[in-house]
């Protein structure tokens, strides 16, 4: 009885499957198990929009895989094709109309777990670069898509690291490092202490270092602003450098001649050193006598250079006839005109005439004129 019931159930299931397959073929042609409706999946609503993403490698992604935004299912993959022109796989997706994404969104192939299913993760671009809105029929280019590494790739990289990489040499490196540090603990400790002091000093002078860098920045900005003048100076310097290059032989000859001249001067100084020292020693007594002369020497030079009548001579011949003024008045006689006082100031020519007017003096009985000396004043320097 049980066997009959099981046979009936299996026959019914096969018939239902055949009817389903025939219904699919009668519509648009059956394309495989991917065309069968599957339970679950994201609800994309009655009016989803379609987006196509280009991938260099879709790995084991299959149709009906979920499309997620922030790990929330918002759509599903409808088809994966390879166009005739190009090598990028075209992944067609349908997304719920309520999901808004920027026009420059990015797509990544991710995996739910180590052995889980693969899905397409949609995300906005880096912050501050989003623009537009992703709409129906949009295409995400290949430079906005990528994928996570596969488990096989991770295991292969670990195998290379463990077998053919440098991990096998870690023991040798550790042994050699211990051998280098063994017995040098004080030196290593001193080096670490000095390194600590060095970093502390750098930290204390961080403001100065920042100021120096700012100064260098300002200098570079100034040089950049004056780049035209610097280029002109360099262009004008080129002819001078060319002249120097043309006259290099003459310059080398001049430098060699200067070197020979220095050798000759050194020989002359070496040969005449004793004579020069003797001359200086002989000159020392003369300089000593001049120093002993002191102030007497310049005073004697004053008398010598202004001979015969100088201010110093007046102090020697005080009381003589140097201050006598003589005026001959004709037949009436001879008068003596007194000299001016040096402190008196004549304000007008009349004062001169009054001062120079002669005073009559009695003449002697003899008719010959004569001069009468004036009694010298005590301050005979006038």
From TrEMBL:
Residues 348-382 are annotated as: Disordered. Residues 1-23 form the signal peptide. Residues 368-382 have a biased composition (Low complexity). The keyword Signal applies. Keywords: Signal. Coiled coil: none annotated. Residues 48-125 form the Mce/MlaD domain. Residues 133-293 form the Mammalian cell entry C-terminal domain. This is Phospholipid/cholesterol/gamma-HCH transport system substrate-binding protein. It comes from Thermomonospora umbrina.
């Amino acid at each position: 009885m049980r066997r009959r019931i099981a046979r009936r159930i299996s026959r019914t299931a096969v018939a239902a499957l055949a009817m389903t397959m025939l219904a699919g073929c009668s519509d648009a042609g059956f394309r495989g198990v991917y065309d069968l409706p599957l339970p679950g999946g994201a609800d994309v609503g009655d009016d989803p929009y379609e987006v196509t993403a280009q991938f260099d490698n879709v790995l084991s992604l299959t149709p009906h895989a979920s499309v997620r935004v922030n790990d929330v299912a918002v759509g599903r993959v409808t088809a994966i094709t390879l166009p005739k022109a190009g090598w990028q796989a075209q992944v067609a997706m349908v997304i719920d109309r309520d999901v808004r994404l920027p026009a420059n969104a990015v797509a990544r192939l991710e995996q739910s777990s180590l052995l889980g299913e693969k899905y397409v993760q949609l995300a906005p671009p880096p912050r501050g670069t989003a623009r537009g809105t992703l709409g129906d029929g949009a295409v995400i280019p290949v430079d906005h898509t990528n994928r996570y590494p596969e488990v096989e790739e991770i295991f292969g990289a670990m195998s290379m690291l463990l077998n053919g990489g440098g991990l096998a040499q870690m023991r040798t490196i550790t042994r050699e490092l211990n051998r280098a540090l063994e017995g040098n603990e004080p030196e290593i400790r001193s080096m670490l202490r000095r390194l600590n002091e060095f970093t502390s000093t750098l930290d204390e002078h961080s403001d100065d270092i920042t100021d120096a860098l700012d100064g260098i920045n300002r200098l570079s900005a100034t040089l950049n602003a004056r780049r035209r003048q610097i280029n002109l100076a360099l262009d004008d310097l080129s002819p001078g450098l060319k002249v120097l290059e043309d006259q290099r032989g003459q310059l080398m000859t001049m430098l060699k001649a200067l070197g020979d001249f220095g050798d000759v001067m050194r020989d002359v100084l070496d040969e005449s050193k004793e004579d020069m020292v003797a001359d200086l020693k002989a000159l020392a007594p003369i300089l000593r006598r001049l120093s002993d002369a002191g102030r007497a020497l310049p005073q004697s030079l004053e008398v010598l250079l202004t001979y015969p009548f100088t201010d110093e001579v007046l102090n020697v011949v005080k009381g003589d006839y140097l201050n006598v003024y003589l005026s001959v008045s004709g037949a009436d006689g001879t008068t003596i005109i007194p000299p001016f006082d040096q402190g008196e100031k004549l304000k007008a020519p009349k004062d001169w005439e009054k001062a120079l007017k002669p005073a009559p003096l009695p003449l002697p009985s003899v008719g010959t004129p004569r001069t009468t000396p004036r009694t010298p004043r005590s301050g005979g320097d006038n």
